[in-house]
Inverse folding.
């Protein structure tokens, strides 16, 4: 698979799922908006464009390109054993997902990384655009970590493409402000992170912020003790964002979002306040 085809495929899925989630949010919202919608959405989506340009300029090697190189040179742990093709692809996708989970935990635990990641958490509302807003420095760092994982694993190229599409799609899904039947939510939580599950992670309460780290598969939260079923205040009443930063001009406008990691006052949401406390 060429990188050009990969870009077209990912852009098609991105556009389609973004549009679907926006329609669903408008038709059946889970919560009422707190911040002004239009400037907030504009800022979040402009950040996506800025991040795309930054990664293309500063990290010219994509995960797919790295996977092609690893395959051609037999790099990576998956080349140590002759796996059946379907099993190798499945193992690679699951291993990628675990790596993203661990990266997410690290971004909460290490103060320097938290300064970058809190741009994602500072959003005053929780909807599909929240799943797209990350500081450019975090996106670049994530891209470098992803390249390292590709080289270490040596996954099939198609597995990298599938994971990239899945991660992007599920991030938009589980950040969406959509209402679904509670029974369906409980069933889906066995196989994918749902909006109600991930919304807990965006609570202002530290022990809730430091739970439900999964973006795609929910299993790591269950297995590693970071799962929290519901927010203390309930989904309609819970406060989204960070207690330290509540001004829309600072957290939901592009200039403020870019400068947020360098602000003097920083919220304490480190992992010493664990989900069990």
């Amino acid at each position: 698979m060429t990188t050009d085809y990969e870009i077209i495929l990912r852009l098609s899925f991105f556009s389609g799922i973004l549009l679907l989630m926006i329609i669903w949010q408008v038709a059946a919202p889970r919560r009422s908006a707190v911040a002004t919608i239009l400037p907030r959405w504009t800022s979040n989506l402009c950040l996506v464009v800025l991040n795309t340009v930054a990664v293309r300029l500063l990290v010219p090697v994509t995960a797919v390109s790295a996977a092609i190189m690893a395959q051609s040179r037999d790099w990576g742990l998956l080349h140590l054993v002759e796996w059946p093709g379907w099993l190798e692809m499945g193992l690679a996708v699951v291993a990628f997902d675990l790596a993203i989970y661990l990266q997410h935990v690290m971004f909460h635990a290490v103060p320097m990384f938290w300064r970058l990641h809190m741009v994602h958490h500072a959003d005053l509302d929780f909807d599909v655009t929240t799943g797209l807003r990350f500081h450019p420095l975090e996106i670049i760092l994530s891209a470098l970590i992803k390249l390292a994982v590709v080289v270490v694993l040596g996954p099939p190229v198609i597995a990298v493409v599938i994971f990239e599409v899945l991660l992007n799609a599920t991030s938009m899904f589980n950040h969406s402000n959509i209402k679904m039947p509670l029974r369906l939510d409980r069933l889906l939580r066995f196989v994918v992170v749902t909006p109600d599950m991930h919304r807990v992670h965006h609570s202002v309460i530290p022990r809730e912020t430091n739970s439900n780290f999964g973006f795609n598969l929910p299993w790591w939260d269950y297995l590693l003790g970071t799962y929290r079923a519901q927010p203390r205040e309930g989904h309609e009443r819970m406060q989204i964002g960070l207690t330290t930063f509540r001004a829309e001009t600072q957290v939901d406008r592009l200039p403020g979002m870019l400068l947020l990691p360098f602000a003097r006052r920083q919220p304490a949401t480190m992992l010493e306040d664990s989900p069990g406390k």
About this structure: Residues 3-262 form one domain. The two ends are 47 Å apart (CA to CA).
